[in-house]
Amino acid sequence: MKLLLVSMFMALVSQSVFAQNDFVKGADVGFLTGQEKHGVKFHDRDGKERECLELLKTDYQMKAIRMRVWVNPRGGMNDKHELLAMAKRAKGLGMDLMVDFHYSDSWADPAKQPIPEAWKEHSYKQMKKDVREHTIDVLSLLKANGIEPRWVQVGNETANGMLWPMGHIEQNPKQYAGFIRAGYDAVKKVFPQAIVIVHLDRGHLQSLYDYNLDIVKKYGGKFDMIGMSLYPYWAMQDHPELNPDGIITDCMANIRHCSEKYGCDVMIVETGFEVDEQHPEKMEEGRRQLTRVIREARNETNGRCRGVFYWEPQCLPGGYKLGAFNSNAAPTTIMEAYVE
Question: Would you indicate the residue range of the signal peptide (predicted)?
């Protein structure tokens, strides 16, 4: 009996230590290339000019970046070459990489999942081949340049499916799962050790995850990890009766639920909090909320949440209100939540 208790204690300690050491703090920086092209110069809290990725890593303990990739985007924004250039910079700093495939020529999210122009007339069978070939093409470019992503997302916020209407979850659930499987198999062909993520929005909404992921599993889709978006701000825009702490509580419960039900780890791959320089108290509140998210994701999910990525923290106020930098391109107090 004593031996059993000791073994159980050591297992819990081991799990806790693993969760502490393997917990990743990161940032989606898909806008960074465009910002730099437009002359944005980033600074630390003391006003010293700094390279953005180095600032995020050194001052805010961010060990990874996330980059989206589109199929045939106008002007090359978020194409595979822009991905490669940023991946090289991250590797030079010793940062890990998450690749976020949208399988679109532009934005894909719960409200829209447009088929790339070049694929529009294709059959389901051909479109699965398109997904496979595009995935292999992008990842092979990274591999040829010595870049190995740690995580790969097959689709972006696919709550309602992907590649509409062909892969809409309500109209064609089997085909949605088929696209997920095609992407999964393509990732494993190039990088067998990469962690493949299925990514949904509204991390606080357990019913969404049950519905979507049950369909993926039912029809043969595969994934290694579940990615969640967590935006209390946007959730309350849609449902004013909600409050941020309740949303965070529900998200943590959903992480525990999903990890147990589907037998895999979870990661918050997108989050963000409001920057309002005219009302500093809003940024203090954002810091408080983010501090809670990081603390509970690390310590209160039975070791199954592997990290928290901030979506475009380097964005400046005016364009996107949930970045984490001010109009001087310096971190706001929100970023302090990442320093432990």
Answer: 1-19
